[in-house]
Amino acid sequence: MTVTIRPAAAGDAEALARLAAVTFPLACPPSTTADAIAWFIAEQLSEVRFAEYLADPDRTILVAEPDRATGAGIALAGSEEVAATGGLVGWSMLVATADGVPADEDAAASVTTRPAIELSKMYVHPVAHGAGIAGTLMAATLASAAESGASVVWLGVNQENGRAIRFYEKQGFEVVGSKGFRLGDRVEHDHVLERAVPRA
Question: What is the pLDDT of residue 1?
Answer without folding.
Answer: 67
